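Structure ticket #2291
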Amino acid sequence: MTEPDFLRSTRASYNAVATDYAERFRDELGAKPLDRALLAGFAELVRATGGGPVADVGCGTGRVTAHLHELGLAIFGVDLSPGMLAVARRTHPELRFDEGSMLALDLPDGALAGLVAWYSTIHIPTDLLPAVFTEFRRVLASGAQLLIAFQVGDEPLHLTDALGHSVSLDFHRRRPGHVAELLSRAGLPVRAQMLRERDDVGDFVEKTPQAFLLAGKPAELSAA
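Resolution: structure written out below.
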C-alpha cells in the first residue's frame, strides 16, 4: 500500500526539527499545571483499573512519556519520526520507543490499559480520524483509558517554516464536540472534557484554545 503524502511530509518535517524541538519544549509541561493535573488524573484512572501497558502515540521526543513514567505507568512511546525517536531514546534511555503510525499500530487487540495522543492526532486529516479512533479502540483493553489533546478551531494551519527549518506540516484544529462524537461512534465514549483558553503570557504562548478529552473503552460485563 502506498504511504499517504501527509505521513511522508509529517515524518520529514519532524525529522528536520527534532533536536531544536526538544530544546524548545523541554520545560513546557513544567509551565502548565492544568496539563499536569490531567495527566495525573489519567494515570490514576489507569492504575485504578488494574494498570498494564500504556502507549504514548505520537510521543515525539518523549516528554509526556517520561512524565507518565514518573507517575508510575508502564508506558512506552510510538512515533512516526526516526529523528524524534532518536532524541527520545537518547534523553530517556530507560524507556522504550517504537517507530510506527497510529493508522496501523503494531500491537495486538486489547493490549493496552491506556493510550495517550497528546497533540498527535492534529496531523491526521479529518476524513481519516474515524479510522484512527477505530484503531485506538482495537488496541485498548476492556475498561482502558484514552486521553487526547488538540488545538481548537475550524480551519487548518499549514506551516512551511518551524524553528528555523523548512517543513510542510498541517495542523488540524477541531471542535471538541465533533471529536467527542467521532470517539463515541468508534466505541470510545467521552467521560470528561476540558477547554483551556488561549494564553498570551509566558514562554509557551498559545494562539488558540486547547481541548482535552478523556474517553475509554467500556468495560465488558462478565456473565452472571
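Closing remark: The two ends are 45 Å apart (CA to CA).
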